[in-house]
C-alpha cells in the first residue's frame, strides 16, 4: 500500500482564499453573507495548471516530440483528470454548494470537481506563489502521466515501439511472419519484430495484425525492462 497517497492539501496562509476556491455560485445565491464564488480563481488556476503541465512534461520527457507532448498535456488537464485530482483530495465533500446543486449530485459531478481543483490551484498560487504550486502539482502530474503512457502502450504498442526504434536506433521496426498453425477456421499467426538485424520480440495472435501488436508489446517489455 502506498501510504503517501492520496496526498494532503497544502497549507494556506490565507485560509479565506481556500474557502473562496470551494464556494460554488449556487451557494452564493443562497447566502447573502458570501461575497465571491470560485469562478475567477478557476480561470486563474486553469492558466497556471496549463503552464505547469507543459513545463513538467518538457523537463520529464526531453526526447518527446511536440505533438505527443501536446496530447499528453491535454490528458493531464482535461476535465476527467482534474476531477480525479479533486477526488483524491476529497474536494467534493468540502465544496460549499447551494441546496439544489447538492441535492442533484453536484459533489460528484466532474465539471464541478474540475472547477474546484482549478480554483484551489488558483488560490494556492495567490497564497504561496508559482514554485509552491509547482512542488504541489508535479508529483500529481508525474503519476498521471505514467498512467496515461502505460494505457497508451497497451492500446497501440506498435506505434510506441516505432517511436522508440526511430529515436534510439534511427530505424523503423520490421515485422516478419515466422509461423502459422491451426485449422483454417482457427489460425494462430506468429510474428517476430526486428530493428535492423536484431530481434526484439515474438508474438502470436489470431491474425497478422494482432500478432504484430503482441510482438511489439514483447519488444517494449524488453527495452523498458521489468
What does this structure look like?
This protein is mostly helical and about 230 residues long. The protein folds into two domains: about 15-155, Orthogonal Bundle (Ribonuclease iii, N-terminal Endonuclease Domain, Chain A), CATH 1.10.1520.10; about 160-225, Double Stranded RNA Binding Domain. The protein has eleven helices and three strands. It has helices at about 15-20, 25-30, 40-60, 65-75, 80-90, 90-95, 100-105, 110-130, 130-155, 155-170, 210-225, and strands at about 175-180, 190-195, 200-205. A hairpin with a 2-residue loop joins strand 2 (about 190-195) and strand 3 (about 200-205). The mean pLDDT is about 90.
Q: Number of helix segments?
A: 11
Largest sheet: 3 strands, antiparallel
Written as H for each helix and E for each strand, in order along the chain, the element string is HHHHHHHHHHEEEH
CATH architecture of the largest domain: Orthogonal Bundle
- Mass-distribution shape: elongated
Average pLDDT? 88
Backbone CA Rg: 24 Å
Tell me the number of strands. Answer: 3
Distance between the termini: 20 Å
Strand fraction equals 5-15%
CATH class of the largest domain: Mainly Alpha
Amino acid at each position: 500500500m502506498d501510504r503517501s497517497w492520496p496526498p494532503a492539501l497544502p497549507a494556506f496562509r490565507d485560509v479565506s482564499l481556500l474557502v473562496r476556491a470551494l464556494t460554488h455560485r449556487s451557494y452564493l445565491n443562497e447566502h447573502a453573507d458570501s461575497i465571491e464564488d470560485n469562478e475567477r480563481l478557476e480561470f486563474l488556476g486553469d492558466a497556471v495548471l496549463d503552464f505547469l503541465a507543459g513545463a513538467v512534461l518538457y523537463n520529464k520527457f526531453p526526447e518527446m516530440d511536440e505533438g505527443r507532448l501536446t496530447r499528453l498535456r491535454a490528458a493531464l488537464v482535461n476535465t476527467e483528470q482534474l476531477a480525479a485530482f479533486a477526488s483524491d483530495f476529497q474536494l467534493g465533500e468540502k465544496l460549499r454548494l447551494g441546496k439544489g446543486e447538492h441535492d442533484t449530485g453536484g459533489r460528484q459531478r466532474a465539471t464541478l470537481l474540475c472547477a474546484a481543483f482549478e480554483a484551489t490551484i488558483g488560490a494556492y498560487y495567490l497564497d504561496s506563489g508559482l514554485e509552491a504550486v509547482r512542488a504541489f502539482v508535479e508529483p500529481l502530474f508525474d503519476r498521471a502521466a505514467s498512467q496515461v503512457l502505460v494505457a497508451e502502450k497497451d492500446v497501440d504498442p506498435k506505434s510506441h515501439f516505432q517511436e522508440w526504434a526511430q529515436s534510439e536506433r534511427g530505424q523503423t521496426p520490421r515485422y516478419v511472419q515466422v509461423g502459422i498453425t491451426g485449422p483454417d477456421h482457427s489460425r494462430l499467426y506468429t510474428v517476430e519484430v526486428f530493428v535492423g538485424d536484431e530481434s526484439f520480440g515474438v508474438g502470436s495472435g489470431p491474425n497478422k495484425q494482432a500478432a504484430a501488436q503482441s510482438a511489439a508489446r514483447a519488444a517494449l517489455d524488453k527495452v523498458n525492462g521489468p
